[in-house]
């Protein structure tokens, strides 16, 4: 209390300086990670209210978490699966990183201890359905509700304190549907998409997972990274991802839901947009959508191409708008007449002037000549052609085959 009164009495520039030192100093994060002086750490906790921002993640939605530049939120889906989830937990513990886990009900039922470990380590735990169906975009709503509720039931049943379950849900395979989202929102549950995946469910190397995670993060500058704690390649890639995040100056943000005791972090609406529009950049950027293709549909529950259909309701807002001038041009310019594009039937001259290859044009021209072959000029051309084709290749080239169609066209014009 004494310290704070001193700061308040100090001149404003001193306050600013102290503030910026506190935010920028990485030593402060490492100090929070005893025994791991080089840890990346968790820079801050962001408290969010699902009621205020029900859908997040620019892979599908307009809004995403109100992160500052170079802030990252790590998320892990589909666990817990002891063999790999425990390794992920260990890696995160060694870096003092807090993440968000989206649990499958069946996994929680089979490995309740795995859920308790996540809670004990201080991570945020949300849910990811009961059986991970990749059809929530088209299944009857009562079935979708049963999937949602089953996942919540078994995940909270695995917890010593069920109130630790966050009202966060990620739709399996990101197969969103209005009905599913509306049901979740009506229950005060926040729908989490992501800002970028690292394709760790596909048959790619751990190094590729690392590269994609960093490349896609660098492209957006901040955001929610989608990973899976049930994949050996994710376990292998994670230490390198974390080391590189630190080297590049990224900071980890831990997200928790608002409660009666812990109100939401104050934010402004514009902070929930990845790239808020500014006066100098009137045209919003279209979010980069990674190629999301299944490699292992049978064994690896994960997003598919259809996931990436950005919510149609939001699309017009990010597409550049037509100016009044553009609209006027469209209505005043006359449409070209049909006959402008018509090609007269059998017109070899026209064909020769189009993109047809010279060889094809020549064949057409010769066919037109056939009835008169052996007589007059056309006959002479036929004879020349026969001689040319039987001549050595270099001789044909030397004579210049390119000039022949032109001569043919001229002769045909004279006949017309
Ligand atoms: Zn999943």
3D structure, described in words:
There is one protein chain. 33% of the residues are buried. The longest helix has 18 residues, at 141-158. Strands 1, 2, 3, 4, 5, 6, 7, 8, 9 and 10 form a 10-stranded parallel sheet that branches. The protein folds into 2 domains: 25-318, TIM Barrel (Alpha-Beta Barrel), CATH 3.20.20; 341-415, no CATH class. The protein has helices at residues 2-9, 12-24, 26-31, 82-95, 105-110, 112-120, 141-158, 178-186, 206-220, 232-247, 315-318, 324-332, 348-353, 358-369, 376-390, 393-399, 403-415, and strands at residues 44-48, 55-56, 71-77, 100-103, 124-127, 165-169, 190-192, 196-197, 223-228, 251-257. It has 416 residues and is α/β, with parallel strands linked by helices. Residues 77-78, 128, 132, 172, 301-302 line the site of zinc ion.
What do we call the CATH topology of the largest domain? TIM Barrel
Strand content of the residues, in percent?
Answer: 5-15%
Give the biggest beta sheet.
10 strands, parallel
- Class from secondary-structure proportions: alpha/beta
Q: Overall 3D geometry?
A: globular
The CATH homology group name of the largest domain: Glycoside hydrolase/deacetylase
Radius of gyration, in angstroms, nearest whole number: 33 Å
Top CATH class of the largest domain: Alpha Beta
Helix tally?
17
Along the chain, the helix and strand elements come as HHHEEEHEHHEHEHEEHEHEHHHHHHH
Share in helix? 40-55%
* DSSP strand tally: 10
């Amino acid at each position: 209390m004494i310290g704070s009164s001193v700061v308040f009495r100090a001149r404003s520039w001193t306050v600013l300086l102290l503030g910026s030192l506190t935010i920028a100093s990485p030593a402060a994060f490492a100090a929070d990670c005893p025994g791991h002086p080089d840890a990346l750490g968790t820079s801050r906790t962001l408290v969010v209210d699902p009621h205020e921002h029900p859908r997040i993640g620019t892979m599908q939605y307009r809004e995403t978490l109100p992160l500052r530049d170079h802030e990252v939120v790590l998320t892990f889906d589909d666990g817990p699966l002891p063999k790999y989830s425990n390794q992920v937990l260990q890696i995160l513990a060694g870096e003092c990183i807090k993440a968000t886990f989206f649990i499958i009900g069946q996994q929680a039922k089979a490995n309740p201890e795995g859920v308790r470990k996540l809670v004990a380590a201080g991570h945020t735990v949300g849910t990811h359905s009961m059986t991970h169906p990749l059809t929530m975009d088209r299944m009857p709503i009562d079935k979708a509700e049963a999937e949602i509720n089953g996942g919540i039931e078994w995940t909270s049943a695995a917890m010593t304190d069920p109130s630790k379950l966050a009202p966060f849900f990620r739709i399996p395979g990101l197969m969103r549907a209005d009905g599913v989202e509306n049901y979740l929102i009506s229950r005060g549950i926040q729908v989490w998409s992501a800002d970028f995946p690292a394709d760790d469910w596909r048959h790619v190397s751990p190094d590729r997972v690392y590269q994609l995670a960093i490349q896609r993060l660098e492209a957006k500058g901040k955001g929610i990274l989608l990973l899976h704690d049930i994949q050996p390649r994710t376990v292998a890639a994670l230490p390198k991802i974390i080391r590189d995040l630190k080297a590049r100056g990224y900071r980890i943000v831990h997200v928790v839901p608002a409660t009666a005791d812990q109100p939401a972090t104050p934010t402004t609406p514009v902070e929930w947009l990845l790239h808020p529009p500014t006066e100098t950049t009137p045209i919003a950027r279209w979010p980069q959508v990674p190629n999301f293709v299944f490699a292992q549909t049978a064994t690896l529950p994960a997003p598919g191409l259809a996931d990436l259909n950005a919510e149609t309701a939001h699309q017009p807002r990010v597409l550049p708008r037509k100016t009044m001038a553009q609209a006027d041009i469209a209505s005043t310019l006359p449409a070209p007449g049909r006959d402008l594009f018509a090609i007269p039937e059998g017109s070899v001259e026209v064909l020769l002037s189009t993109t047809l290859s010279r060889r094809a044009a020549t064949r057409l021209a010769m066919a037109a000549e056939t009835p008169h072959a052996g007589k007059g000029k056309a006959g002479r051309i036929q004879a020349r052609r026969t001689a040319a084709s039987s001549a050595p290749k270099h001789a044909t080239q030397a004579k210049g085959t390119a000039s022949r169609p032109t001569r043919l066209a001229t002769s045909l014009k004279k006949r017309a």
